[in-house]
């Protein structure tokens, strides 16, 4: 279950990117998947017909196979985008679907908020001895249970992270110094 939460946490923790990528990609992926607007007659074939030249048929089977493969791939990407879009929206609105799970089932570690060139990072050492510097997005910060908490640079607190996937973390707002 932790692996599924880790996978779902990516669109939640990158909410704005998921919304924009999803919104701009859905229409194009839908057209590629369902073949909207394509008849199979390309402009080159129309010009050849107008000039009285014979149709070029070499490689037709290969092109048909590639079209089918492209539609299948576009369909898989479409399913992924449709799944990630609501997760991204939930992350931006503060209702991160994965945050409560990580907080309830995660391992605690001491952490510090570090600002590097205007970007906020959470730095902590996991139980395996590795130090992680993970981006904390301004628009969808990984805070729980207080989703509106603001953590400034230099603040020390505790994070909870999934032991197998430390990239999935939440800032435990109950441990913030001003609480």
Description:
45% of the residues lie in helices and 22% in strands. It has 179 residues and is an alpha+beta fold. Helix 1 (2-13) crosses helix 4 and helix 2 packs antiparallel against helix 4. The chain starts with a helix and ends in a 7-residue tail after the last strand.
> Which strand order do you get reading across the main beta sheet?
3-2-1-5-6-4
Tell me the Rg in angstroms: 24 Å
Structural class, by secondary structure, is alpha+beta
**Uncertain residue segments:** none
Kindly report the average pLDDT value.
86
What's the multimeric state?
Answer: single chain
Please, how many helices?
Answer: 5
Q: Which percent band covers the strand fraction?
A: 15-25%
Please write the string of helix (H) and strand (E) elements: HHHHHEEEEEE
| Distance between the first and last residues' Cα | 31 Å
Number of extended strands: 6
Shape: elongated
Amount of helix: 40-55%
Main beta-sheet annotation: 6 strands, mixed
């Amino acid at each position: 279950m932790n692996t599924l939460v880790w996978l779902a946490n990516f669109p939640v923790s990158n909410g704005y990117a998921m919304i924009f990528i999803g919104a701009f990609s859905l229409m194009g992926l839908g057209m590629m998947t369902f073949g909207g607007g394509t008849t199979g007659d390309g402009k080159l074939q129309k010009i050849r017909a107008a000039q009285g030249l014979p149709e070029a048929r070499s490689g037709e089977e290969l092109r048909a196979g590639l079209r089918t493969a492209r539609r299948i791939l576009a369909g898989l990407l479409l399913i992924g985008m449709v799944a990630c879009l609501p997760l991204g929206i939930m992350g931006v609105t503060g209702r991160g679907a994965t945050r409560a799970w990580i907080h309830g089932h995660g391992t605690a570690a001491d952490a510090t908020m570090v600002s590097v060139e205007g970007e906020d990072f959470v730095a902590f050492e996991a139980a395996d001895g590795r130090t992680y510097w993970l981006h904390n997005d301004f628009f969808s910060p990984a805070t729980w249970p207080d989703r509106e908490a603001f953590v400034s640079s230099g603040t020390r607190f505790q994070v909870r992270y999934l032991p197998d996937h430390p990239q999935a973390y939440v800032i435990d707002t109950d441990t913030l110094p001003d609480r």
